[in-house]
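Journal club prep, notes for RB
We'll compare a predicted complex against what the paper describes. Inputs for the adenosine-5'-diphosphate case:
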Amino acid sequence: MTKISIKPISIKSKIVLVILLVNIIALLLAGLIFIIYDKSVFLSSRSEELSILANMIGNHNNAALIFNDRHTAKESLSSLSVDKHILQAFIINLDNDTLAKYKKVKLNYPNYKSPDFKLDTVIYTDKTIIIIKPVKLYKEIIGSVYIESDIKKYYERSANFFFIITVSLILALFIAFLLSTQLQKVISRPIVNILKAMKDISEKNDYSIRIEKKRNDELGKLTDDFNQMLSQIEKQNLALLLAKEEAERSVKIKNQFLANMSHEIRTPMNAILGMSNLLMDSRLTNEQYKYLENICTSADNLLVIINDILDFSKIEAGKIEFEKVRFNLYFILMKINSTLQFLIKEKGLSFSFHIEDNVPDYLTGDEIRLQQILLNLAGNAVKFTLKGNISIRVKKINESKHTVTLLFSVADTGIGIKKEDIPTIFTSFTQVKSDSKRAYGGTGLGLTITKQLIELQGGQISVKSEAGKGSTFTFNLTFEKIVKIPTKQSDEKEIHLIKQPTAKAPQDINVLVVEDNEMNKMLAVTILKRHNFNVDVAENGEIAIEKLSSGNFDAILMDLHMPVMDGYEATNYIRNNFEDAKKNIPVIAVTAAAIVGEKEKCFASGMNEYISKPFKADELIEKVLKVVLKNGK
Ligand code: ADP
């Protein structure tokens, strides 16, 4: 069905139309009243004329009635022919016989049904007036006179009036139209001005515009109110702007605080974890080993919480970025298996995973975040399951030329979640209240972060759960397909490279550790020395530059935040002021901040690698060997 759009009538036209309509109604009403009045005036004056005439004829024919003189009566009636509107007339005697008659036209006698000729009567019909006048002699009725006249004269007058009224109506309407088009401006102009101002405001978003007030009536008040409303909006906008700036400032401060706090916590955490791991390798009594194991577990838990808070603040600030790297899904699930293995065994649970055959082995996407999502869900599954098993299933639900969408389900046979609690579990810092006294630990942030990480990558997460029976968390994510699948050979080559990274033995590699924190310095030095590297230390960038000018090094482990001269400045100086081998010495940035942009900042100032605290011993060795190998040693 086609939609007909009717253009709305403008206020100007509406005002003109209303004025014209009022005029038409007023004129028609006046004309009608006049025509009705004229009719009644005409009828009464005509009937008076006819009555006088009938009286005169009656008086004149007294003798004729008494003596039944038809000739005289007829003669007297014939004088009526001077009035061309008289149609017929009769003189009737007491026996109701017609003494004489006058007929202008042929009409049925009388043109009135059974009139009582002895009563003084006036009858109005559609087209005529009938007058019946009794003729009296000494108060005694001796007969009557009947006169019937048409009212053509009235219709002629009416036609003339109608013509005059029509002409005056047209004339009045024309004048009213001319006047109203001018006069409507008095009403419409302020309204049109307000409309124009509104359009300007919405187009320019400028609430400082005001409308000039030109009058004191209701429209002037409307202008005043409109201006007042604009002032209020302007004030509110200003308040909102200030509040927005304040909120942005607080978010910045919060993020800065979180970055600083994370840095401050990660630095000692690096020392605690590193030292504990080193201590694990030393000779310990069983009791000492147990204590140390507890320290390691607590430190690991603490690190998870710090990472959660950092992730949460990054997501809130919209600063999270997703990487696109090639990864193997099977390896990820294996890693999750080995990470949770200790807990699974301790609780006597079983763990299985299944990847359907049509799921590609290699994909491109954010491997670390996928691992984090799966670890969060599987970690929760282990945490909230007392007996039974935990399983992860991966199946393909969609595929296009370049992408593949996978559905992951993480199922457990644990305590489950009550129906009414399900909507709350994805809310930050929310944990379901446990019926039993058992405490499960956690921050209530894991699922919030998981949901956000999935949704920011275009996926969705849902949960099916029954209290006491278990839960299944399901999510979908889309990954890019890898066009060229790596051969087994190239995989092997990579592993080979890591195992035999350099022609140089570690004892021939000189590493300069630039670090101001005593604990961390000690940790890095101990790890490197244990792996037979030659190590020298510098407390800040300035000392590092001095040492580099006088000595020979193969790599620098550079802390970023140090007093006197920080890591960025020192690297910048080396890249711009040294020559040849020293100018190009590999620099590995060591940082605890782990905030978005820091990695890029490190590379921009000339560093070659990046390692965040707390790091594992293997990770450090691998990175040092990698940069030395790349540099051609
Ligand atoms: P937490 O750090 O407390 O585990 P999460 O955001 O990961 O925080 O989970 C929020 C809450 O959701 C948990 O405290 C728990 O009550 C409930 N929950 C999450 N996963 C499961 C599960 N697999 N089984 C039962 N309850 C769960």
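Talking point for the session: The longest strand covers residues 470-481.
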